[in-house]
Amino acid sequence: MNEETTTPNRRDFLKNAAALAGITVAPGILLYSVSQAKPADQSVTSEQRWGMLIDVTQCTSGCDECVKACTVEHGLTEATRPEIAAHWIRKVGLRDKQTGQEYSLPVLCQHCEHPPCADVCPTGASFKRADGIVLVDKHICIGCRYCMMACPYKARSFIHETLENQKPYSPRGKGTVESCNFCVHRVDKGKNPACVEACQQAGHEAMIFGDLNDPYSKISEKLKIVKSTALRADMRLNPGVRYQGL
Amino acid sequence: MKNMVYRELEGNSPGYYGLLGISAILVALGLFAAYNMEHHGHVITGMTNQIVWGMPHIFAIFLILAASGVLNVASIGSVFRKTFYSPLGRLSALLAITLLIGGLSILVLDLGHPDRLLVAMTTYNFKSIFAWNIYLYNGFLVIVAVYLWFMMERRMQRYYPVAGLVAFIWRLILTTGTGSIFGFLVAREAYNAAIMAPLFIALSLSLGLAAFILILLTDCTETHCPLGEGILHRPKSLLGVFVAAAFYFVLAYHFTNLYITERHGIEYFILVGGGIYTFLFWGGYLLIGTLLPLILIYHPQLNQSRKNITLAAVLVLIGGFSLLYVIIIGGQAYPLDIFPGMEVTASGFFDNSPVHSYVPSHWEIMLGIGGIAISVLLTTLALKILPFLPASLADADLDPQLLD
């Protein structure tokens, strides 16, 4: 047990030391610090707030690498009918009614600071983690779907049929509601969500994930200099997902 | 008023056993539907990730509204001291309980996890209006049961006006809660309106009274109980008032939306271009469920016939069901406006559908009818076990001096 708890600390120490050394020897090169994932034996805190910036100008209409990556990562299988298929992230094409300008962008759970889904959930199965990630506790979700009625972004899916071949790190279940969880299993290990990684690998760099509370994180640095918007900003839910160039 | 004599149903007639048998079969079919929905999942229903609440919710809310409304007959007797209605108090309270149980059964059996009912009863998020409703519904059952006990137990009768008042206030809060399930949905244009609560209260009054009149007529026909024209005339006129009140709130709701520019889309959808929803609004709710009953109730010649009163009550129920269909399904069929000012040209998740389609499956309808059958079965059994029905409702048996 001791061995298990000391090993990550030693690793963290070495990682921090390496980061510190990097900052010391190469001032001006490393402009932002890397947000640290929490050690597995510590609970999440509100010191961090995970968020995402989506640069719509870098997102191309034919590309759906983020959607594919999500499907693979969470084992979202085909449904009997498209209307009942689960979508954690989807690509949407938009045209400005006034100017005719066209956009393509991914839409996912916006991880609101004040999530209406968590407000309406009778059992508290829908909840916001201290670090801002909005999740569903599949053990106490009774499948009433009130959160789906309440979500302004249509970000949630109800599981209408029996599922097979689920991923152990991403439990899902018939009769419960689910949505994007920012790949919490990856985030807790210091990795980016699968969609962000896929977008980077596709060379688009349209998605940045990071800690909004850390003023030196890449996402915070970028949010300081670019104009970004929230979907349905009029509702003042303060989503963790922001869009640039929309 | 004379001391009323109450009696149990004899319950030996073929009609009684027929009703018991049919409702038992329908309950079994409803449970079978629920079992299938649980076993296969909601894939066998018409509900989707776009239309997440379907036919079961319409049946359930219909019954829940009728349950709170039907108690009004008892309230008029005990809270508003219209002694004329007092003999009907027991039946009214009984129906409030049985209709609510029927409605709640549908809601619970439609859950993705009905097996987690215990979780819903023990794990609460008090910011959720749904969680409040769980308290309100359970509290209603307890309060009305106590109210009924005080009505039926001679030693407790002096407390029964207090119990009546508590039940009356509770039912107002309960229907406010039911309406607020929709009223508090800030994201959807069809909802997010405080008027949903009073609209649902008015609708509950008309649905409850219509159901009560029908059940009273059925019982008295079956048992050959003398039923005076007076005892029918008053609830009938009151039904007209309730139907008009519900219409007033529907009118206010739509006028408000027509004034708010951003809601023109949903208004156009419901009132003009919504297909089945437009048809059900104008034809089902307004014509069949409002105008025709009002004519039948207030026309000096037409309102003399008992058949017409029965018809008016049936039409009010059809109208209420239609309105709930328009509110619940129509409100979801109109897509969310996630990107104001933008036209959605493509989407992997139906954001670009002008309307979300919904066709209820027979499983959903079976479950809904099963819920009604639960109410009927419980009522039929209760009427045989305890004296809920007055022996006579002939006008002569009610002291004319106290008629008001």
Plain-language structure description:
The complex is a heterodimer of chains A (246) and B (404). With 246 residues, chain A is α+β, with helices and mostly antiparallel strands. Chain A contains seven helices and ten strands. Chain A is globular, with a radius of gyration of 19 Å. The termini of chain A are far apart. Mean pLDDT of chain A is 88; it is low at 1-6 and 22-34. Chain B has a two-stranded antiparallel ribbon. Chain B has helices spanning 14-40, 55-70, 72-78, 89-110, 117-122, 129-152, 160-183, 196-223, 229-259, 264-273, 276-298, 306-333, 362-385; strands at 6-7, 342-347, 389-390. In chain B, helix 2 (55-70) packs across helix 8, helix 2 (55-70) crosses helix 12 (306-333) and helix 7 (160-183) packs across helix 8 (196-223). Chain B has 13 helices and three strands; from the N terminus they run βααααααααααααβαβ. Chain B has a domain at 191-223 and 230-335. Chain B is globular. Strand 2 of chain A pairs antiparallel with strand 2 of chain B, so a sheet runs across the interface. Chain B: InterPro entries: Electron_transfer_protein, NrfD-like.
Characteristics:
heterodimer, A: 246 residues, alpha+beta, 4-stranded mixed β-sheet, 10 strands, B: 404 residues, globular, Sulfur oxidation protein DsrO (chain A), ET_IronSulfur_Cluster-Binding (chain A), metal ion binding (chain A), TAT_signal (chain A), 4Fe4S_Fe_S_CS (chain A)
Write the layout of secondary structure elements.
The complex is a heterodimer of chains A (246) and B (404).
Chain A lengths: L1 H24 L24 E6 L9 H10 L14 E8 L5 E7 L7 H5 L5 E3 L5 E3 L9 H5 L6 E2 L18 E2 L5 H4 L6 H8 L5 E5 L6 H8 L2 E2 L11 E4 L2
Parallel strand pairs in A: 1-10
Antiparallel strand pairs in A: 1-8, 2-3, 4-5, 6-7, 9-10
Helix pairs in contact in A: 2-6
Chain B lengths: L5 E2 L6 H27 L14 H16 L1 H7 L10 H22 L6 H6 L6 H24 L7 H24 L12 H28 L5 H31 L4 H10 L2 H23 L7 H28 L8 E6 L14 H24 L3 E2 L14
Antiparallel strand pairs in B: 1-3
Helix pairs in contact in B: 1-13, 2-4, 2-7, 2-8, 2-12, 2-13, 3-4, 3-7, 4-6, 4-13, 6-7, 7-8, 8-9, 8-12, 9-11, 9-12, 10-11, 11-12
